[in-house]
Amino acid sequence: MTLHPDVDTAVALACDAADAWAGSDGLRRAALLDRLAEALENDRPALVALADSETHLGAARLNGELDRTCFQLRGFASLARDGGFYGRIDDPAVAGPPPAGRPDLTRVRVPLGPVAMFSASNFPFAFSVLGGDTASALAAGCPVVVKGHPAHIGLSRRVHQLAQGVLRSLELPEGLIGHIDLDTHAAGLELVAHPGIQAVAFTGSLAGGQALGRQAQARSQPIPFYGELGSVNPVVVLPEALEADRGSLAKTLAASITQGSGQFCTSPGLLMMLDSLDARALVGQLAVEIDQIGLHRMLSERIHQGYVQGVAALKRHPEVRTLTSAASTEGAGNGFVGLVSAAAFLADQALRHEVFGAACVCVLATSLDELCAVLAAVGGSLTTTLLGADGGGERDRRVFRIAQKISGRVLFQGMPTGVAVTHAQHHGGPWPASTQPLFTSVGFTASDRFLRPVALQDAPLWLMERCGVPV
Amino acid sequence: MTLHPDVDTAVALACDAADAWAGSDGLRRAALLDRLAEALENDRPALVALADSETHLGAARLNGELDRTCFQLRGFASLARDGGFYGRIDDPAVAGPPPAGRPDLTRVRVPLGPVAMFSASNFPFAFSVLGGDTASALAAGCPVVVKGHPAHIGLSRRVHQLAQGVLRSLELPEGLIGHIDLDTHAAGLELVAHPGIQAVAFTGSLAGGQALGRQAQARSQPIPFYGELGSVNPVVVLPEALEADRGSLAKTLAASITQGSGQFCTSPGLLMMLDSLDARALVGQLAVEIDQIGLHRMLSERIHQGYVQGVAALKRHPEVRTLTSAASTEGAGNGFVGLVSAAAFLADQALRHEVFGAACVCVLATSLDELCAVLAAVGGSLTTTLLGADGGGERDRRVFRIAQKISGRVLFQGMPTGVAVTHAQHHGGPWPASTQPLFTSVGFTASDRFLRPVALQDAPLWLMERCGVPV
């Protein structure tokens, strides 16, 4: 594979910066992360305007996303300051023969090295140049090389320039935060293939993620590929939740499905219920609500075309009844709600695939067994939402067991869109929601992806004094 | 791929047992693990005799290995009792708008499901039917399906029968510990391909591991493949360590290299030093010591042939001077010590490959730069041993940084053979030492391989009362 000189230069600069950054202490890492947050906030009006011009996501959402991005940077700064990333475990020597007798062992975690980070189309701040992947990698002691997303490449360039200014002001090397400004699939593959890269973080399509994941495995030294490749995010509404304020539930669901024109990785794409008059009424109300919500233009023409084709296939499907009335004419057009029986859903694998955008398929089951079969058939998903499961009877436990098996987050209230950045968060789930379901890309354990344990046996004093600060 | 009926049956039984075992509490898991250790100890004389007849490893080593295996089972029992595996993190709700405002989130870890476990040739107890992989998987809540190793299949059968007796006495399903008794590569591939299997643990050859790893990735749902694929375990002897008792160091090195006829994953295969009269004297003494140690028969004829061919290639190599004098005639024959310059070592990639058995290549470097280049060239290794690095000067720090980069454990005293089973242990390292260098196959964090986080958002009381015991 021939490497584009831009890829080679960016990775070479990251490699040059790697050892010193791996050896930096938590205070230095925290200073960088805090200053990056400050730089974003100081340039807020211009950044939000530029992001809106490229993504059409609107100032309110983009200001909120910038807040979240700064919150993440500062949260990882705080963790770096605490030194918790080193995950140090001490086992003092025990005299006597093995297995109980043992030498002195201390386990610390060390950074993997330069991380290739692929910006997501749908989060121009929070999953881009200075987003959660970058913050968690820098906090872990790894430089990053970001492949900017073509849907907001102008913003990527500006944010990267801001970052470079911060690096200069702290006398840190430019290679700590690299940026690749090439709109080709080849450049992405070359970045993953580069021997200097030691891990990959990716949020995007199943096809794109699979191609990059194969490349990560095909290297002479395979490396971890952390990919978030899509999710249908089922919402199960149990009868108890239908007895409450159905109108309000329909509005909440409609708002979640259409939020950001449905371009969230946790956007609910499947609603499933036991068939009843109440259930059918909810589906009808949901369609009315969605018909009333005008969607903003989608992130790119390619994404819009994908949505239009996905909805067209659902409309054509002989077993799917279209409940929304509006026609999709330009931009994102309108949301879509379709209705299908559980039997028909189970019979056609195509109905389980994500349509990226404001489309929701409602599945009505005739029995609890059928409802469980539908949920199990969904496969790996970032989230499953269970509404009305507060009782804890055998039905609730059974549905929960399946929800837990297929997803990385199970909600009992609210909607899956909106992902809190906390320690307990887990944004990942069985394949294809995540290629590495044991790790998360959101929340403060996201740095675990970039840290490798090393056991130090009978380490001398000079080393233990600095643990876990690498020497 | 057509499945052998034995593979299909074993995995189907494991799947049947999975939900109830995932829902079992720590006390139940601990009871099983403790009883398995007891069963091994009660049958000790017969087990050790059978193991010795198949592996030739000798009663002393096999009794010690059985002790370690029971120690592991009881250690994981103790962890299961404590409930620490659930790794619960609680983030209570915070009022207000995001990003600071958030719902209530609790993160727990849930078992992945049935684990395929491939027994290693060289540890008939500790990496086999009831070895560390099985103990860590059962403790995590996962059934296992063990592929018995043909080098000790009689022992595998007997241990599996013991395990079945324990399962019956505890009224646990037979599928919790399955055993596949088929001596074909196809059976291994079929086991990994089976949709019921959710993770794979493997210790063995690079070629075998790569084939199984590719199969794990080629599934419609890829699964984690935890493979330990070989390691050369460099030992760096710095001048300070040569000034001490050189004769004793030569004896210790020789004992480690020849232990178990060199059939340890942490057997030292490379010795590297700055060239000096002392260094040359140590190499000479090492060869004399190794010539005096008779090796026992190797584990299998295939392994022995591999060793003979590896040594023959070293003897033929124009740049390698053979220092040991004995000829390899039958069985393992004798150990091998060769000497090569750093320049020649760096010029030929073939010299970096592991020769499984009691072979050690000594590399003499003319400068610290060259020594560092040799160490860096080794690539991923389970261990690196640094003797004489107690001062902590710039030289020690520089060599340590490289050691840390290429290995999962860095020793400052003693020899890498013998792996203590503790919390701080890390038995894994950059590829190919491990296919998943963020995880360990020895020590009490080995269960991390089989547990997946799930975030519970606004979980109801009935669920929180049972956390982290799955419902």
Structural overview:
The structure is a homodimer of 471-residue chains. With 471 residues, chain A is α/β, with parallel strands linked by helices. The first copy, chain A, folds into two domains: 5-229 and 434-464, Aldehyde Dehydrogenase, Chain A, domain 1 (3-Layer(aba) Sandwich), CATH 3.40.605.10; 234-411, Aldehyde Dehydrogenase, Chain A, domain 2 (3-Layer(aba) Sandwich). Chain A has helices at 5-22, 26-42, 44-55, 59-82, 132-140, 153-169, 185-193, 206-218, 239-243, 246-258, 277-291, 301-316, 342-347, 368-378, 394-406, 461-464; strands at 89-91, 105-111, 115-118, 144-147, 177-180, 199-203, 225-228, 234-237, 270-274, 321-322, 336-341, 359-365, 381-387, 407-411, 451-457. A seven-stranded mixed beta sheet of chain A has the order 10-11-12-9-8-13-14, sandwiched between helices. Chain A has a five-stranded parallel beta sheet with strand order 5-4-3-6-7, sandwiched between helices. In chain A, strands 1-2-15 form a three-stranded antiparallel beta sheet, with no helix packed on it. Chain A is globular and about 75 Å long. Chains A and B meet through α4, β1, β2, α15 and β14 of A and α4, β1, β2, α15 and β14 of B.
Class by alpha and beta content of chain A = alpha/beta
What is the CATH architecture assignment of the largest domain in chain A?
Answer: 3-Layer(aba) Sandwich
CATH class call of the largest domain in chain A: Alpha Beta
What characterizes the major β-sheet of chain A? Answer: 7 strands, mixed
Low-confidence stretches of chain A: none
Multimerization status: homodimer
CATH topology of the largest domain in chain A: Aldehyde Dehydrogenase, Chain A, domain 1
How many H/I helices of chain A?
16
> What value does the Rg of chain A take, in angstroms?
24 Å
| Overall mean confidence score, pLDDT of chain A | 95
